[in-house]
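Handout, page 2. Input:
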Amino acid sequence: MHKNFKQDLALILEEKLRAGTIDRRTLVRSAAALGLTAAVIPGVAGAADKELVVVNWGGDAIELMANAWGKPFEEASGVKVIIDGSGPTEGSMKQQFESGAVRWDVCDAEAGSVINLGSQGMMEPIDYSIVDKNKVDPSVALEYGSGNYFFSYVIACDNVAFAGNPPRNWVDFWDVEKFPGKRALYKWMNGVLEGALLADGVPVEELYPLDVDRAFKKIDELKPHIASFWGSGAEVQQMLREREISMGMIWNTRATLVREDTNGEVDWSFDNAIYFPSTWAVIKGNPAGPETAMQFIASCQDPESQVELLKAYGAGPANPAAHALVPDEFKAIDCSSPENVAKQIQTSIDWYAANYAAVLDRYLTFIAS
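Output:
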């Protein structure tokens, strides 16, 4: 009787899967909890081996990554790729590892978080016998992460109000007399501290380690003129489009969109931009196994697909070979091209690895006060 009951539970799970009320991963987890195996459920044997969950930061990036990297990997490997847009924060990755309930196979993670968690034994080392080290910028060929794209925090401004004399650097951004109007800065700190210190006269070569107290003091000077510490790219894009602010710190990807939205009435450049990498990383204990995860990462190194992501989304290729394939009309928005990198401030991922969590807590309290 007990055996028949279990068989009926297996049938219920199969029916729910076919009805679309559960996915394959939920099915496999439920079966395990009930003491069943995928093999006893008709048509789903090996389901756990044929699914890879890739987590990114949501929004348009879900569909864009699915098209650029997910679908080609599915076609080549037979492994179904699911893009989860819930955001691989450092805390979320750590919690999954410590709980023993890892849900994500590949994480589109901040390099500093990858270094920090990797040093604590929570991340799989990148298998460079599968992932090609020659197909990633050397600055992000890390032990526990491999670069997937680059992005920048740029200054976008009202090109009508400042016609012929736009702000070009963070000193200008802080100069409310020469460049009047409200500003917007990023809620989650990245790039803001660097911008504040550059505005306060710190030379680029002396930025790191960041003088956090000095940066806070400089930000405090600008607070009366800050309309928002924005949390989403769409938010600051709208503020610029609607002229609620005269200038704002914004991702280059969103800056490109708002320039298109306004037919150039809002404009930007890579001058003095703050340049960041993103990396692929794998939490130890990922459901699909490290080898499948590494194969997916390797597939994303294809330069043509990285160019497609640049064209669709504005993300800078991590494979140096991709730059030669970028069409002329997209070269100006390629943040990781040698020409544009030379205009920007490169961040210290080692500083972020050692300090991000503690300083972020202070920063969030500071901007809320």
